[in-house]
Amino acid sequence: MKAAILSALAAVTIADAASKTTRQTPDRTRSLPAISVSGNAFWADGERFYIRGIDYQPGGAAANEDPLIDTEVCSRDIERFRRLGVNAVRVYSLDNNENHDECMDLLADAGIYLMADVNSPDYSINREEPHPSYNADYLQSVFATVEMFAQYDNTMLFFSGNEVVDNENNTDSAPYVKATTRDIKNYLRARGLRQVPVGYSAADVASNRKQTADYFNCGSDDARSDFFAFNDYSWCNTDFLTAGWDQKVQNFTDYGLPIFLSEFGCITNGERTFGEIESLMHSNMTSVYSGGMMYEYSMEDNDYGIVDIESNGEIEERDEFQNLADAFSRWPAPSGSGSPAHSTTHSVSCPTQNSLWEVDGDEIPTMPEEAEQYMENGAGEGPGLRGPGSQNAPDSGTSTGGIASGEPSPTGSEAPRRSSDNGGSEDSNNDSAARGLVIEKDILMVTGAVVAFTLFGAVLL
C-alpha cells in the first residue's frame, strides 16, 4: 500500500513538472506517413517515395520571409501546388519563432511534404570564414528549427546546408556543414525527437561533385548524411544523354544513399517543357535517383518562376505553370519500388585531399562546448528571421578541436535514445512522431524532496 501511494505521488509530481522546453504532443492529427530512408531510396508506409516537388520561397532569398506562417499566403499557393501535382515543397527560410501548424496541416491535407532548410541568411555557415560562423548561437537557431519541425509527420527532411561549397577554393567549409549534420542528428536523438533524415544540398560543381558527395557519406554513422542532393541545371530542353545524366547515374550507382535533385530547371534554352521529369521517373534513373525539385514557384530577380505574385497578392500564372502541370501528369511516379540499387545504406571512402578538395577527411570539428546544454535542456525559443544573426557571434563559443570522422562524437551514440527511430538511415515503422519527456534538474530536486518526505511520513504510519 505504501509503495502504491509513493508511486502514484511520484508519477503525479513528475507529470506536473515538465520543463518549458518539453515537447507537447500536437493536437492535430497528421494525414501523411513519415518518410524514412532504407538503402538508397525514400519510403512511406513501405512504398517507394519519388520526389516530385517545387522550390518555394516567395520574395527570394533577399526578402528572407517564411511563406508558411501566413495562412492566407500558403493556402493561396497550396491550391496551385495541388493543381501542379507536386508532393513536396522546399522552403529555404523558416521562422523558428512563429507557429506553422495551420500551413503544415494544409500541406498535409494536400498530400505535400516539406523539405526544411535549417539555415537562413543571418544564421548559416559563412563559406569564406566557416570556423567563427560555426558557433553556439548558430546551433541554437538550427536546433530551434529542428525541434519545431520534427513534430510534423510531413516534414520529410532537413537540409544542413545549401551550396556552401560552390567552387574549388572554399572546400574547407565542408567539415563545418558535416559537423552541423552530425549535431542535428545527435540533437534529434538526445531530445527524443523523430529521426527526420538529414543531408546536404550541393552545388553541381563538376570539378569536385563526386568528392563532395563522397565526403558527406564517409566516416561515422552519426556524421554521415542520410541522403545527398544537388542542384542540377544541365538539362536545357535537351535529353538524357546530351545533359550528361547517364554519366551521373553511372557515377552514383554504388553510392549507398538516396540521391535527388534539390533544384532543376535550366532557363537558357527557351521556354521550359520540363522533359527531365520523364527521365527522373524512368527506369534509366530510378535505381539511383529518387526524383527532384523544380526551381522555382514564384518569379524573382533570377527569372526562374512559373507564377508572378502581384503587389496585392494576386497570382498570375505563366505558360510554364501549365507546362509543369502537364509534365507531372504525363510522366507519373513509377509503380513499385523502381529497383533501387541497394537494399541497405552503406558508407564510402573519404575523398583524397588534393588541390581540388582541400579537406582532411579524418577529422571534423567538435561541437562548441557552449552548445552542449541544448542537447539536455532543448534549444528554447528560436531567434526567428529578424534576430541579430550568428555569423559575427564567435564569442558565443566556437569549436576548439576535431574528432576523428570514423568515430562517434561524444554526444552521438552515447546520447540517450528516448524513442525508436522513424527515419534517418534505418529501416523502421514511422506511423507517428516519437515523444520524449525532459525534466529540469531543479524540478527533479524538488520532486525528490517531496518523495523523500512522503516516504518518511509513510514509514511513521
TrEMBL record:
Q: What is the protein's name according to its record?
A: 1,3-beta-glucanosyltransferase
Kindly indicate where the leader peptide sits in this chain. Answer: 1-17
Q: Which species is the source of this protein?
A: Verticillium longisporum
Stored PANTHER family: 1,3-BETA-GLUCANOSYLTRANSFERASE GAS1, 1,3-BETA-GLUCANOSYLTRANSFERASE GAS5
Q: Which residue windows are transmembrane per the record?
A: 443-460
Q: Where in the cell is it found?
A: Cell envelope; Cell membrane; Membrane
Q: Which InterPro entries match?
A: Glucanosyltransferase (IPR004886)
Enzyme Commission no: 2.4.1.-
